[in-house]
Amino acid sequence: MNGIKLIRETVKAVSKELGIPVVDVILFGSRAKGNARPDSDWDILIVTVEKLDWKERLKLTGEIRKRLAKGGMASDILVI
Fold this sequence. Notes:
- There is one protein chain.
- The mean pLDDT is about 95.
- The protein is built from three helices and three strands.
- The protein has a single domain (about 5-35, about 40-80), classed as Alpha-Beta Plaits, CATH 3.30.70.
- It is of the alpha+beta class and about 80 residues long.
- The longest helix is centred in the last third of the chain and has 17 residues, at about 55-70.
- It has a three-stranded mixed β-sheet with strand order 1-2-3.
- The termini are far apart.
- The protein has helices at about 5-20, 30-35, 55-70, and strands at about 20-30, 40-50, 75-80.
């Protein structure tokens, strides 16, 4: 499975489990530009329907990071 597909499926699964509707998942940074190094992380922007408080954001990003890390993918996640 390629990285982008894994990210989208992971975000979809975690957001569904937590009951947080997500509008879009956007890749940015060096991986999006095509100039990433092998050790580059994945920069991910998650757009939610409603503004999340810090606890919800932490729960969402923490679980996504954990699952992606199991797949060998370091990530930096922003939520708006």
